[in-house]
Design a protein that fits this description.
The structure is a single chain. The chain has about 220 residues and is of the alpha/beta class. Helices cover about 15% and strands about 30% of the residues. The chain is built from 3 helices and 12 strands. It is globular.
């Protein structure tokens, strides 16, 4: 059901996003449950949705389904984080995480701390286009991640998160390209407690010998 490349200027020529492909698959799944299409038709159309490049390809999969209309993904579905050469990218504390986070950085540091963030979807794609740095991704305690689609040259993945048999929520799919450095995944670090540590105070001038600590 795919089509040739549409003519420039045609709305159908717009490239589609992962969010729109997923939207079509959800329409198809509901249509199969409602008996509007068969399981075989669902399988064929879902595969075509995954391979779609242009809006025309996706819209053709929904033409005969009442009420199924493709809406262009909004800008909030994608967060583009870009830094100039040597610039840093940092997200900490509370921030909203859309379905797709794109990171572009060369030489500058990259820190994405998701531990206090609000996730808008259970699965988030983090797409790296980075190099000559060590991107740090801090995941919530219950989150999981995979790096199967991440390509690294002159570096490695330092994965310190706890892996489970089943996918957690949220789940991060880290993909893209990184070179000349490590990509680090970990959970938040807990504060260290040192047993036997005694609190000391410094006396003020006139209260004792200047600079002496109580108990010395």
């Amino acid at each position: 059901m795919t089509s040739a490349s549409p003519e420039p200027g045609d709305p159908a020529a717009l490239r589609v996003s992962d969010v729109e492909r997923e939207q079509v698959q959800q329409f198809l799944a509901r249509a199969m449950v409602a008996g509007q299409i068969t399981a075989g038709e669902y399988s064929d159309r879902a595969a075509a949705a995954l391979a779609a490049r242009f809006r025309r390809d996706l819209e053709g999969l929904l033409d005969d389904l009442p009420g199924a209309e493709l809406h262009a993904s909004r800008s909030v579905d994608v967060l583009d984080l870009q830094a100039g050469v040597g610039g840093a990218i940092s997200r900490r504390g509370y921030w909203r995480v859309p379905p797709l986070v794109r990171v572009h950085s060369w030489i500058g540091g990259v820190t994405l701390d998701f531990s206090s963030a609000e996730f808008t979807t259970p699965v988030v794609a983090v797409e790296l286009a980075t190099g000559m740095c060590s991107p740090l991704l801090v995941l919530p305690e219950h989150a999981t991640a995979d790096v199967d689609d991440l390509r690294i040259s002159a570096g490695k993945v330092r994965d310190d998160i706890r892996h489970r048999r089943e996918r957690g929520v949220p789940h991060l799919v880290v993909r893209g390209k990184h070179s000349l450095g490590d990509v680090v995944l970990r959970h938040p670090r807990k504060p260290r407690w040192r047993p036997g540590r005694r609190k000391t105070t410094v006396t003020r001038e006139g209260d004792g010998a200047p600079g002496r600590r109580n108990g010395d």
